[in-house]
Specification:
CATH topology: Deoxyribonuclease I, Chain A
EC number: 3.1.11.2
Family: Belongs to the DNA repair enzymes AP/ExoA family.
Strand content: 15-25%
Strand order of the largest sheet: 3-4-2-1-12-11
Shape: globular
CATH class: Alpha Beta
Helix content: 10-25%
Cofactor: Mg(2+); Mn(2+)
Largest sheet: 6 strands, mixed
Protein name: Exodeoxyribonuclease III
CATH architecture: 4-Layer Sandwich
Structural class: alpha+beta
Number of strands: 12
Keywords: Hydrolase, Magnesium, Manganese, Metal-binding
Length: 256
């Protein structure tokens, strides 16, 4: 079973790229972030034409998450618990093929310090609490998406330039570690512990050409599913396509 995550950076503006990638990679499940479209503008027909069912949680101009699946998909929740006033579309969760899949788009948090960084840390706390409740149920769970955090120095090109950035500040990295330490497996690092692997390349300064990237798109696997992990891959070449997202698609393969 192949499960993917992809921050599309605008699902309609980059629809040809998304569809091309779906046809090429053919994941069984694809979690999308940054739809940047209200619910009624989600390109459902184009997705269905490729054989996918879909659920989505949209928002005009910003945020937005979706889960696509070749088989049956049962929505479990949209939005994280813990803050009824949070109107950002950043989390959606479904039951697919016996697995609970959480698709998330964690806040960027810049500039830091400041209100946006405070919101990021609060959101991280809510995610950690919800993850703990999923973990406690003993179900096979995959939490994937754009976490907007580089966990360690190996996950960022020239880390000394990022020390004050919200994605790399000690508080953010500590929050990610607290989450993982519940017992989750970071899929990429589990299979590639020492490799330089990036999932995001800025549009500026030829970052992709220079391989000056960040690893901010992650898969966390619960103990019930981590032993089934066979592969964890970044489709880096997709970042080189015309009119593409600044993120690369990432996918894991699990034994059935």
């Amino acid at each position: 079973m192949k499960i993917a995550t992809y921050n599309v950076n605008g699902v309609n503006g980059r629809l040809p790229v998304l569809l091309r990638w779906l046809e090429e990679t053919s994941p069984d499940v694809a979690c999308l972030q940054e739809l940047k479209a209200p619910d009624e503008k989600f390109p459902l027909q184009a997705i269905q034409d490729l054989g996918y069912n879909a659920i989505w949680h949209g928002q005009k101009s910003w945020n937005g998450v979706a889960i696509l699946a070749k088989g049956e998909i049962q929505e479990l929740r949209r939005g994280l618990p813990g803050d009824p006033d949070d109107i950002h579309s950043r989390y959606i969760e479904a039951f697919v093929n016996g697995i609970v899949i959480g698709c998330l788009y964690l806040p960027n948090g810049n500039p830091a310090p400041g209100p946006k960084f405070d919101y990021k840390l609060r959101w991280f706390e809510r995610l950690t609490e919800h993850a703990a409740s999923l973990y406690a149920r003993g179900l096979p769970v995959v939490l994937c998406g754009d976490y907007n955090v580089m966990p360690t120095e190996i996950d960022v090109y020239k880390p000394e330039r990022w020390v004050e950035d919200a994605l790399f500040r000690p508080e953010t990295r500590a929050a990610f570690k607290t989450l993982v330490d519940q017992g989750w497996t970071d899929a990429i690092r589990h299979l590639h512990p020492n490799e330089t692997i990036y999932t995001f390349y800025d549009y500026f300064r030829n970052a992709y050409g220079r391989d000056a990237g960040l690893r901010i798109d992650h898969f966390l696997l619960s103990p019930q599913i981590a032993p089934k992990l066979k592969a964890a891959v970044v489709d880096r070449h997709v970042r080189g396509w015309e009119k593409t997202s600044d993120h690369c698609p990432v996918w894991v393969e699990l034994e059935e």
